[in-house]
Amino acid sequence: MRLNIRTLTAASLVTGIALLTVPGLALAGAGEPGHGHAAAVGEPAKASSAKRVVQVELGDNYYKPESISVKAGETVRFVLKNKGDFLHEFNIGTATMHAAHQKEMAMMVEHGMLTPTGINTSMNGMDHSKMGMAEMKHDDPNSVLVGPGETKELTWKFTKETALEFACNMPGHYESGMVGKVAFTR
Amino acid sequence: MNTASRGLSRRDALKLAGLAGLAGVVTLYPERRAFATAHQTLDLAVERTRLTIDGATSHGIAIGGSIPAPTLRWREGQEVVVHVTNRLDEPTSIHWHGLLLQGVMDGAPGFNGYQPIMPGDTYTYRFQLRQAGTYWYHSHSAGQEQEGMYGAIVIQPAEREPVRADRDYVVVLSDHTPERPASVLRKLKLGSVSEGYYNRSKRTLFDFFRDAERDGLDATVRNRLDWGDMLMEPTDLADVTGYSFLVNGKGPQDNWTALFKPGERVRLRIINASAMTIFDVRIPGLPMTVVAADGQNVVPVKIDEFRFGVGETYDVLVLPQEDKAFTIFAEPIDRTGFARATLAPREGMSGDLPARRPRTILTMADMGMDHGSMAGMDHGSMAGMNHGAMPGMDHSSMPGMKQGPMAGMDHGSMKGMDHSAMMGMGAGSMPGMDHSTMAGMDHGTMAGMEQGAAKGSDRALGWADAATPPGTKALSYADLRAFSKTRDPREPTQEIVVRLTGMMSRYIWTLNGAKFDQGTPIRVAYGDRIRIRFVNETMMAHPMHLHGMFVELENGQKDRLPKKHVVLVPPGQTTSVQLTANEPGEWPFHCHLLYHMASGMMTRFIVERRTASL
Questions:
Q1: Measured between beta carbons, which residues in chain B are less than 8 angstroms from residue A116?
Q2: Selected residue of A176, A178, A181 to mutate for chain B interface (largest B Cβ count, 10 A)
Q3: Domain membership of residue B527 as a residue range
Q4: Could you tell me which chain B residue has the CA closest to the CA of A131?
Q5: Is there a domain that residue A69 lies in?
């Protein structure tokens, strides 16, 4: 997820919010390949480039399987099926990235953009600038939101070995244990 | 009952011959060895014992040899058999708090045909576990619960747990006094307002002058007169003091410790097994994610502290990342002490003790008498209000009242508030606003707010004010959302008003003005959907407990009303719940403050078949 911070008004009121919503890691957008430590996390890839498909069940509030083995340099196509009643996320990142993203998602829920069961489409494109807030969008390349009953996909290239987790950052879900380990094998 | 008991024992003896020699010994199967069809059987003896709290020897009553009693770890769907042997010289009983079961197995003497277990007798409980989660068990006889007869029940779900934890601990909070419960109750009844036997914080002359300086002499005198006329005291938050507050039977110096490795996910099953103490619970430096309330799963909600009614349970998850000790800190709302335990990577560590919170000063709003803010008040519900007890109240003088008019306001419901309209709001337009009372509000998101406006935590006004620091979140009932949707969406067809009433000065606590068995029982038809409105006409909070069925708290969560077995009703407030009357029987329905129940704050809740032949 990335926040496109376009409008900053009423600076005094905004400062705190803006600080709160700056992503923990400036992950490069889909258009520009990652650099710096973002590269360690990996990068999005085309589904056709994946040699392996991993099915993941998303439930309330868990993943099945609870850990996934990958190889450095491998591209994996994740097929994500939400069998629960709640909205879930599949996000690949470090624990620090997840912690930062949890704050952002908590704010999106607080403002009604996301509800516990889905994405509030009526709020898409809503201009939060009057509130002095940055526009919020859930559009990170390393993350997918999957509504109840939906199946979605994410194809990811794991460039090099690093400590990664796949996690759901909906409020309380990570804390409840909806997080799994990406285990690198040789 | 003993005949039935022996019958069951004989049957069990055949199946469990191998355990015959173990009577009086706690027998618990490790949960992972659960046999698909085998019963969980155990023997629990009730006997007097000595206990040591922070080095001082005291005495109490143990179930199964310890205080608290052993944690019973069961699995949903199992049939359990418990033989309880009374080794006291007085009758006893064990009630399974929060469990859905047949009336006679509920263990409340005088209800559903259950008789107390007489000295020397053994009673055999047998019931199927129809639920999962954290519950507890305790005596339902005399004041035995106060003397140590309480323990935890942990029931693993038949299906998958919605949460995952690396460690799982039971945290039983309680209050202990070396005094015998009968003596406590006698003193409570003897103590008048002028004596205030247990209330050590009556407002003093010093307070009077301080108030006068703040509010002006007129207002102070008027306020004083009001309180005087109502025969109550504004510091009456709890009526018994002199307690030691325990965590799993350990005092603050004993420091019960739970271990973790940094990065682990720790589940704490916190149970308020106190006789009389409502706590504010926090773990400074460690946010808690509440995943269950009263044993029932809720949509996880992240908080920093919660107010904890007697009889309630909350399951929370914490994720300590640092290699350091954290303090589990529970302060009674009258701030007469604290319970303390430690979460640590190693034994022998202790975390900092946080600064103690101030005791709140009750306001007229806590009496439901804040006439200045009556705009939204539903006069339709005032039918039963007894104005006779308000002789000296001068309504003409209310406009001048300054003190905490927002005290009873539930800010927990401000979630959906549209902050966009607040942009141009000048601080100048909020003259009378006292931020110190906004306990339930999440200041974390109000980044631009001038923190100076919040008075901080050196003073607390109104019952709801836990002196929660700005930027931290206290759980509000409005935050609780059932993990599963409400099974019975029917609109209630019967509404029952239960007025919580009492006369503090004579220590008489009642429901609808009547002591237990002097009033009329509540009768509902089996299968009906019922609404209960608790109207608290007293200045104390009452944790109202219904046996046999869960109630669903009407907290605005629509099709996900949280299920509760205890609902804490704040002073001067109205709280409503719904339930489906699907458990036939005559169930105890009472305030879970032990001495309130003992003095009469109880009634029968009878669920009967429509055909008269029950």
A1: 299, 481
A2: A176
A3: 482-608
A4: B420
A5: yes
Say if the Cβ atoms of B420 and A175 lie within 8 Å.
no
Give the residue ranges of chain A where pLDDT is below 70: 1-39, 123-136
Residue of chain B minimizing CA distance to A113: B416
Structural domain of A48: 42-185
B309 and B186 in one domain? Answer: yes
Of B164, B300, B446, the CB nearest to A172: B300
Q: Which of residues 459-498 of B touch A (CB under 8 A)?
A: 481, 483, 485
Phi, psi of A152 (to 5 degrees): -130, 170
pTM over 0.90: no
Phi/psi at B397 (5° precision): -95, 5
- Bridge partners (DSSP) of residue B168 are B267
Does B448 contact A at CB distance below 8 Å?
yes
Kindly report the CATH number assigned to the domain that includes residue A85: 2.60.40.420
Q: Does B7 map to a domain?
A: no
> What is the Cα–Cα distance from A119 to A111, expressed in whole angstroms?
12
Structural domains in chain A (count): 1
B312, B254: one domain: yes
Asked whether residue B151 is assigned to any structural domain, the reply reads yes
Q: How far is CA B451 from CA B18, B123, B435, B565, in A?
A: 67, 60, 10, 38
| Residues B350 and B470 reside in one and the same domain | yes
Number of domains present in the structure of chain B? 3
Which residue type sits at B11?
A: R
Does any domain span residue A139? yes
Chain A residue with minimum CA distance to B447: A16
- State residue B110 phi and psi, 5-degree precision: 90, 0
Q: What is the CATH number of the domain that holds B90?
A: 2.60.40.420
Kindly state whether residue B372 falls inside one of the protein's structural domains: no
- Which 19-38 residues of chain A touch chain B by CB within 8 A? 19-20
Which segments in chain B show pLDDT lower than 70?
1-38, 191-237, 241, 367-458, 611-614
**β-bridge partners, A78:** A54, A154
ipTM: 0.79
Q: Is the dihedral of CA A168, A151, A68, A72 positive or negative?
A: negative
The residue type of B153 is: I
